[in-house]
TrEMBL record:
<comment type="similarity">
    <text>Belongs to the protein kinase superfamily.</text>
</comment>
<keyword id="KW-0418">Kinase</keyword>
<feature type="domain" description="Protein kinase">
    <location>
        <begin position="95"/>
        <end position="377"/>
    </location>
</feature>
<dbReference type="InterPro" id="IPR001245">
    <property type="entry name" value="Ser-Thr/Tyr_kinase_cat_dom"/>
</dbReference>
<keyword id="KW-1003">Cell membrane</keyword>
<keyword id="KW-0067">ATP-binding</keyword>
<feature type="binding site">
    <location>
        <position position="133"/>
    </location>
    <ligand>
        <name>ATP</name>
    </ligand>
</feature>
<keyword id="KW-0547">Nucleotide-binding</keyword>
<keyword id="KW-0723">Serine/threonine-protein kinase</keyword>
<feature type="region of interest" description="Disordered">
    <location>
        <begin position="385"/>
        <end position="436"/>
    </location>
</feature>
<dbReference type="InterPro" id="IPR011009">
    <property type="entry name" value="Kinase-like_dom_sf"/>
</dbReference>
<dbReference type="GO" id="GO:0004674">
    <property type="term" value="F:protein serine/threonine kinase activity"/>
</dbReference>
<dbReference type="GO" id="GO:0005524">
    <property type="term" value="F:ATP binding"/>
</dbReference>
<keyword id="KW-0472">Membrane</keyword>
<dbReference type="GO" id="GO:0005886">
    <property type="term" value="C:plasma membrane"/>
</dbReference>
<feature type="region of interest" description="Disordered">
    <location>
        <begin position="1"/>
        <end position="51"/>
    </location>
</feature>
<dbReference type="Pfam" id="PF07714">
    <property type="entry name" value="PK_Tyr_Ser-Thr"/>
</dbReference>
Amino acid sequence: MGHCISSLFSSSPSKTGLHHSSHASTNNHSNGTEFSSSTTTTPATTNSSAGLRSQFSEAISESSGGIVTDSGQLLESPHLRVYTFLELSTATKNFRPDSMLGQGGFGKVYRGWIDAKSLAPSKAGSGMIVAVKRLNSESVQGYSEWRSEINFLGTLSHPNLVKLLGYCREDKELLLVYEFMPKGSLENHLFRRGEPFPWDLRIKIVIGAARGLAFLHGLPREVIYRDFKTSNILLDYNYEAKLSDFGLAKLGPAQEKSHVTTRIMGTYGYAAPEYMATGHLYVKSDVYAFGVVLLEIMTGLRAHNTKRPNGQESLVDWLRPDLLNKHGVKQIMDKGIKGQYSSKAAAEMARITLSCTELDPKNRPDMKEVVDVLENIQRINVVPDRSSTKPAVASSSRSSPLHYQYGYRAGAAGAERRRPSRPSPGRVGAQKEMVA
Ligand SMILES: Nc1ncnc2c1ncn2[C@@H]1O[C@H](COP(=O)(O)OP(=O)(O)OP(=O)(O)O)[C@@H](O)[C@H]1O
């Protein structure tokens, strides 16, 4: 979630201190605890964000005009629609609780409806579904996130970044309108469902997310995402991953500098050790967080969980040593997906996870290399005969990618998302969670 705004912006609010956020995200409770600086200042008023955006876009491209890199694009003139509060109220049925898709640290996200061509708001049930984030405008974090999202997502376009369609600022109301991601977040699938999430989909999703990060890191002026975690990886109908939530994103270091120095913000369990220790943020700090997500998809366990016994709260600290040998890898793999991956694929995953989570940022690979390795893992994952594989849990016939079905259910999304994750008895990880 975003709090920090680039130094490009003069009205950046001042912030001090560090605290555990008290927000109750519907997706993020006992696990990825958020930390951020506490803020007391009132959001400063700005003029239209368009001027700031073009200044911002220039900073990213370090030249004028839009550029294209790989399959992504830096937009010269973003086409964001400016909505009125009334329009978005209508589109979301007055922000009715049954329209709510979820809640993050600084606001609630609602299902809304707009016309697919004109992007004009339409009556609920007609046109195209969108996600409308209504930010808590009283906090500076909410305001800063809103600006940061517009600056980054209004300027960048890539198949693995969520699309921002428009925004609204009216009195104290700050809203953002995104393309709707029908399959929710990776976090939902990995941790909030009774049944194990198929290995093939896990790999497909991390490849997409890796491509998104590689795009950000490959820009003429690198962009550091700073909040890479499973709840920020959203999924389209085909489980294509899209990074959302650019509230914490930062422009990377200028010219010969290796890092930017910034206040420490992010999510426990994912933040790189050098960043936690010094506030020095490297492009490679994102690579560390990516490695943490790789360990999560291998084990089916959360990056950080205060309910685990002492010494096991941080997944990396706890299980990284097991990645060093074959036996350890076998032990920590999520038992719910047994038979869905080859031992070679698991060994390669262990290798790249180790490398991404190296203590020294210089020893971590860059995201392009990570993409290549993951694509190779996807290729080599030949398992003998799926149909003869014994399911590890009773319901795992549904865990085949072909059968796996899950998205938001109309009106029930909130309830699904609030369901606590139940440890599956068959999982080594789940057993480890309970070991005193
Ligand atoms: N474009 C979208 N389409 C569908 N659901 C979305 C979309 N954007 C956000 N959501 C859902 O709304 C919820 C809240 O999202 P939000 O980005 O505000 O917070 P978060 O990332 O879950 O939490 P945090 O405060 O840790 O960043 C998430 O569960 C997410 O799945």
